[in-house]
Amino acid sequence: MTKLPPHTNDADPQETTEWVDALEAVIKHEGMERAHYILKQLSDHATRTGAQLPYALTTPFRNTIPVQDETPKPGDAFIERRISAMVRWNALIMVMRANMDNDDELGGHISSFQSGATLYNVGFNHFWRATNDDQLGDLLYIQGHSAPGIYARSFLEGRLDEEQLDSFRREVDGNGLSSYPHPWLMPDYWQFPTVSMGLGPIQAIYQAHIMRYMSARDLVPRDNRKVWAFLGDGEIDEPESLGAISLAGREELENLVFVVNCNLQRLDGPVRGNGKIIQELEGIFRGAGWNVIKVVWGSQWDSLFARDKSGLMQKRMDECVDGEYQNYKANGGAYTREHFFGKYPELAELVAHLTDEQIYKLNRGGHDPDKVYAAYAEAMRTKGQPTVILAHTVKGYGTGDKGEAQMGTHSLKKLDKETLQAFRDKYMIPLSDEELESVPYYRPPADRPEMVYMHQKRRDLGGYLPARQDDFEALEIPDLDAFKAQLGSSGEREISTTMAFVRLLSTLTKDKQIGKRIVPIVPDEARTFGMEGMFRQLGIYSSSGQLYDPVDAGQVMYYKEDKKGQMLEEGINEAGAMSAWIALATAYSNYRCPMIPFYVYYSMFGHQRIGDLCWAAGDMRARGFLIGATSGRTTLNGEGLQHQDGHSHILANTVPNCVSYDATFSYEVAVIVQDGMRRMYQDKEAVYYYLTLLNENYQHPAMPEGAAEGIIKGMYRYQEATGEGQHRVQLLGSGSILREVIAAAELLRNEFDVDADIWAVTSFNELTRDGQDVERWNMLHPEQPARESYVTQCLKNQSGPVIATSDYMKNYADQVRTWVPANYRVLGTDGFGRSDSRQKLRYFFEVDRYFVAIAALKSLQDEGSITADIVTDAIQRFGIDPEKPNPLKS
Ligand SMILES: Cc1ncc(C[n+]2csc(CCOP(=O)(O)OP(=O)(O)O)c2C)c(N)n1
Ligand SMILES: [Mg+2]
User: 4 falls in which pLDDT band (50, 70, 90)?
Assistant: First the structure.
């Protein structure tokens, strides 16, 4: 008869035991599947009778894979332990050396990698395939602050030398190692910037999704490639970490493996001191359709489990909270004996034969290569589900009482002499006490068995990791002529730049060379942008095709989901859509297949909402287009304060390799997109594009002769002054407000005898970057003839003050002030948006034609060209209340 642990609330222990015995018998004689079946029948029956069962998505706090089902780890356990020890050593040393004998405060982390070392080493030795001429390898999202351990392995492998390790976090002089994974700084090494917590997990999910998309469309073979993402248990609290896991479950992303390093601690303290992070995550992931593998306990516990016939030890494990588990590791064997086992006399008895030292060494699953191997092997085999491995570890493992499971261990940067010696002894690093004085790295000669073994393992898996491919085969980009429809006048037809863009996109998808590489991505706003025609034309990607008849099936533009769909409709999920875009925008590297993604979204929900992903995209050398549709504070008029964007260009300019444009006319859109494709995919510049589009309808002129170059540089003369007026001004306008500027020029000419040159400014950001670059060069070359910024070149031979107006904050146009060789006045839309007609909003924000005209007149007054009463007269004539509140404050 089974002996059950004492439960105080068991009304009839005898009856309970009978049920458990019956179940045991079924498992023993008929197998687990039959047991499952019977339990399911019982549960269904109970539900039919109306019973509310205490459904639990969690299992007891123990390993998911029973000992007898573990796939045995092949290879030489002893040698692998040696490799692991050396990796640990060098990871520790490189952080210590970065922080020794200097006041540079370079930082670095010891404890995170020491807790995750086995999780990485098992992967490197047995699972992770590299990309080479024959295969596309696995994609690894490595916990950012575990970077020292990854460098340490590369050092052992001979890919990095001591000098480079000593240049950890010393990058300015070149050849340094970046603090965290940064492809921008180490383009042949790191693939994914992960250290801004949460960005790794969400990107990994969408990477796996895009991997399936790419193969569904026959762009790259599917193979058995996997995406592995390493997460901290503290990192899990980021909304991005868990926010997209249901997509992975729903899409059955069997090519995705999450490994959560559950060391129970984050930076300040325990992740769930009063609960159990592993159990919490088990429930969440299982509920989202994931295959959950808990790796809680190491092999040292196996014999205790075998002897724990009553389940009392399990009960004790289940009732302890993480704060207590942290205590056991921080306080050692005697403490654990007393506080963990000592709670029940039978349990104390169970470990009576063990010394305190042996109790302390009862290991956690994430530090046991055999348990980790078994979990990884299971993840590799899993079909139809993503896998999450919840690995129980100790933060600062091996760093003794100075670091192991200590509250402040995350910030540990150095070990004292005794702790270092103890670490050396624990990992049997053959260095004497004297040698330790210099805090040396350790790498055995190349012919040592460990080294031979390690290289062989990587050869078997196709090469070394991490590795990133930066180069790709250039694409043949169509000439500008291909977009004739956008370059000509729209005639009487009033259209928006969004409509022009959608047509251009449609043309691109039909291009023989690049058509299949074009990927429109929307987060549930295609209809808003008039892109619904693409549903049918391109199909919406869905891994299950379309299992229903769409209600609009009879219509030409019906909602067509398709296994080979080209368009991505990612739902109301900007971070997800952006992550999909990033995966495609880096496909040139990770799939050796350049893709041209266009992510089209409400401009307000771009850089402002997902700015950190935009930043990461720059780091990753993403290539593609972000399209901020319905942009402009006063142009998207009805939607109000939380939609009307007047600052996305300012944010876009914070990403160094993001090239941004605010277009007015369809020919500008065509020129910008064509040139962008040329720069990114033909000339292989590591930039990406941000282009704002408008939903205001108006007539579009044909492209003025020779305008293309200026459009790309950021400004061109749209209309020359007639030369007839008494006074002269230079009017700059961008986006929708250019049209107000054009109207203002007419007012000025007709009513004030002021003649205006009109300049269309497609990018104050590009103008600014050019100006700053020129200024910098001039500063550093004082003896050389000074160079001239493009803004200066455009305006230097013009006369009259310069007035710039945009639908963005004044800062946007104000950036170029230094290079404007004249009196410069800026109008813009600072302040919270609100709903009203465009006309009213432009009056409210003081960017309509009348304000442009007044700004011009005021500038002429300031120059002494006209008298104040003319300006006053204009203010009155236009019905402007001079006491109207400042929009910034209203
Ligand atoms: C978005 C973001 N916020 C804060 C940090 C700073 N930070 C770096 S590591 C860390 C603690 C990480 O804890 P955990 O995820 O559990 O990883 P562990 O080191 O324990 O493996 C914090 C707060 C960050 N990198 N990113
Ligand atoms: Mg942690």
Answer: low
Query: Phi then psi for 652, rounded to 5 degrees?
Result: -60, -35
Alpha carbon 470 to its chain centroid, in Å, reads: 19
Q: Which residues line ligand 1 (CB under 6 A)?
A: 112, 115, 143, 145, 195-197, 232-235, 261, 263, 265-267, 271, 395, 410
Retrieve residue 392's tokens: 């129980």
Give the pLDDT of residue 1: 57
The C-alpha atoms of residue 701 and residue 666 are separated, in whole angstroms, by 8
Q: Whose CA is nearest to atom 20 of ligand 1?
A: 266
Q: How far is the CA of 403 from the centre of ligand 2 (A)?
A: 14
Pocket test of ligand 1: the residue of 266, 268, 409 to mutate, having most ligand atoms within 8 Å of its CB, is: 266
Name every residue whose Cβ is closer than 8 Å to that of residue 220 and which is 6 or more positions away in sequence.
136, 214, 591, 592, 593
Cα(124) to ligand 1 centroid in Å equals 23
Structure tokens at 311: 């389940």
State the pTM of this model.
Answer: 0.96
The pLDDT value recorded for residue 9 is: 75
User: Could you read off the pLDDT of 725-739 as tens digits, one per residue?
Assistant: 999 999 999 999 999
- Average of per-residue pLDDT across 492-501: 96
Cis amide bond preceding 466, omega within 30:
yes
Question: How many helical (H) and strand (E) elements, i.e. helices and strands, does the chain have?
Answer: 37, 18
In 315-414, which ranges are E strands? 387-392
644-674 pLDDT, tens digit each: 999 999 999 999 999 999 999 999 999 999 9
Q: Whose CA is nearest to atom 19 of ligand 1?
A: 112
Q: How far apart are CA 602 and CA 618, in angstroms?
A: 20
pLDDT in tens, 569-608: 999 999 999 999 999 999 999 999 999 999 999 999 999 9
- Per residue, the 3-state secondary structure of 796-850, as one string, reads CCCCCCEEEECCCCHHHHHCCHHHCCCCEEEECCCCCCCCCCHHHHHHHCCCCHH
Degrees, nearest 5: CA angle 864-868-870? 105
Mutate which of 237, 241, 267 for ligand 1 pocket (most atoms within 8 A of beta carbon): 267
